[in-house]
């Protein structure tokens, strides 16, 4: 079980436009998503995050992704964000996020990166790119980490019950969902189908 209090499927909306964001996020909330990430390398990301936070605060947790430095973290904290995802291990970002009681998923791939993150205060690790590590690599990494550290594979996760179930059996506590959920310019109907399918699979796995 994860320490997260809500569905541990993190929806990654990389590349989403400010114009489309509200409609897409509303659907995610409707089907049961709670943690919704807008990466900072999306167009007008700060504007989008501010809009979504003001609209949906209390209904979901709007977060910033691809947060690589303290300057970016301070900027999103001022917007109200209390959930961030990093692609890298920056000890200062981890420490500052913890100071602000900001939920942080720290991006790692190797044991050295993982232990640097843990020693800096990380409790949640984003294992990325999971498709390069594969299930065997993910299992090997988890075998050397403290049991209380929660790991979330990201990259190459598909709406596939067998794949997701295998990761859960190995020790995954949830998933970050990228291109298999949303990609820049995706039609809304395709997105709805993807989001609904991921939630259906998650409910089946939990049963």
Any chance you could write out the topology, listing elements then pairs?
Blueprint: E1 9-12, H1 18-31, E2 35-39, H2 45-56, E3 61-65, H3 70-79, E4 83-85, H4 91-99, E5 103-108, H5 111-119, E6 124-127, H6 130-144, E7 150-153, H7 161-170, E8 175-177, H8 188-206
Parallel strand pairs: 1-2, 1-8, 2-3, 4-5, 5-6, 6-7
Helix pairs in contact: 1-2, 1-8
Give an overview in words:
Homotrimer. One of its GO terms (molecular function) is 2-dehydro-3-deoxy-6-phosphogalactonate aldolase activity. Pfam families: Aldolase. This is 2-dehydro-3-deoxy-6-phosphogalactonate aldolase. Pathway: Carbohydrate acid metabolism. The protein is an alpha/beta fold. It has one domain (9-187): Alpha-Beta Barrel (TIM Barrel). Helix content is 47%, strand content 16%. The chain has a 4-stranded parallel beta sheet with strand order 3-2-1-8, with helices on one face. Strand 1 (9-12), helix 1 and strand 2 form a beta-alpha-beta unit. The longest helix has 19 residues, at 188-206.
Summarize the structure.
This protein is α/β, with parallel strands linked by helices. Helix content is 47%, strand content 16%.
Rough shape? globular
Spatial order of the strands in the main sheet? Answer: 3-2-1-8
Tell me how many strands there are. 8
> What percent of residues are in strands?
15-25%
Enzyme class: lyase
GO molecular function, one term: 2-dehydro-3-deoxy-6-phosphogalactonate aldolase activity
Keywords: Carbohydrate metabolism, Lyase
Subunit structure: Homotrimer.
């Amino acid at each position: 079980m994860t320490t997260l209090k809500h569905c541990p499927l993190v929806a990654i909306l990389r590349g989403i436009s400010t114009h489309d964001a509200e409609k897409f996020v509303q659907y995610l909330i409707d089907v049961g998503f709670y943690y919704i990430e807008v990466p900072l390398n999306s167009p007008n990301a700060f504007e989008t995050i501010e809009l979504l936070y003001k609209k949906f605060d209390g209904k979901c947790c709007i977060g910033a992704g691809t947060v690589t430095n303290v300057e970016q973290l301070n900027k999103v904290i001022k917007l109200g964000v209390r959930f961030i995802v990093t692609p890298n291990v920056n000890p200062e970002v981890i420490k500052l996020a913890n100071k602000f009681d900001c939920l942080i998923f720290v991006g790692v791939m190797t044991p050295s990166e993982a232990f640097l993150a843990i020693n800096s205060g990380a409790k949640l690790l984003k294992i990325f790119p999971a498709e390069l590590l594969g299930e065997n690599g993910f299992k090997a990494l988890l075998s050397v980490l403290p049991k209380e550290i929660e790991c979330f594979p990201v990259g190459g996760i598909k709406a596939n019950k067998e794949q997701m179930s295998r990761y859960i059996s190995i020790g995954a506590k949830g998933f970050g969902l990228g291109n298999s959920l949303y990609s820049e310019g995706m039609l809304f109907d395709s997105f709805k189908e993807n989001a609904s399918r991921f939630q259906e699979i998650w409910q089946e796995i939990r049963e």
